[in-house]
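Protein Entry — a single chain follows
Fields — amino acid sequence, structure tokens
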Amino acid sequence: MIKNRKQISKILKALSHPDRLEIVIGLYHNECSVSECQQRMNLPQSTISQHLRIITEAGITENRREGTMVCYRIKSDFVIELIKLLER
């Protein structure tokens, strides 16, 4: 669990945007690439990339490369628990 209030604040600020929250909830269910997020949300690729940058800088996600594709997934246990609460 995250104990640093500044880190929690940064995470909550990142999640306060509806599109970013939707991206994170989607990543909770399945890791995906920018193009997969773009197809699911019907937003421009640049917008998805900007949101993913903010989410990653907040420590919510991490990524890995598969050839030329970058896949994102949630790395924060705090965020996983938060999403579980939100989905109840």
User: Anything to note?
Assistant: The helical segments are 5-15, 18-29, 34-41, 45-57, 77-86. The two ends are 20 Å apart (CA to CA). The beta strands are 32-33, 61-66, 69-74. The mean pLDDT is 91.
